Amino acid sequence: QVQLVESGGGLVQPGGSLRLSCVASGIIFSIHNMAWYRQAPGKQRELVAQITTPGGRTTYADSAKGRFTMSRDNAKNTVYLQMNSLKPEDTAVYYCNAVHYLYGSNYWGQGTQVTVSS
Fold this sequence. Notes:
By secondary structure, the protein is mostly beta strands. Helix content is 0%, strand content 53%. It has no helices and eleven strands. Strands 2, 4, 5, 6, 9, 10 and 11 form a seven-stranded mixed β-sheet that branches. The chain has a four-stranded antiparallel β-sheet with strand order 1-3-8-7, with no helix packed on it. A hairpin with a 6-residue loop joins strand 4 and strand 5. The protein starts with a strand and ends with a strand. The model has no long low-confidence stretch (mean pLDDT 96).
C-alpha cells in the first residue's frame, strides 16, 4: 500500500518560514519524481516545485522561486519543502505527489494546511 504522509504545516506570520516533509512508503522512492502542489480555497491545485530522479533537478513555480527550496533524501524516503518569506497568498493545503519516472504511476498524500496570517 502506497502512502505519502505530509507534515510540517501550520500557522505562521507573514515573512516567516516553514519546512514541510513528506515521507513515502510502499514505493521504490528513488525511482519516483516528486513534487509539491498546493490548493487554496476556491482555486485549482497548482504545482509549486518538483524534483526529478535521478539527478535531483528541481524546478519551481514563479511564485516559489527564490523563496522555496525542495530537496529529497532517498535514504529516508523523504522530500522536503523549505518555505521562507511566506506571504498570505501562500495559504493553501500543500500536497505531496510521487510519479514513477518511467510508468507514470501517480500517488498523492492527504495534504497539510499552511496558513500565513498575522
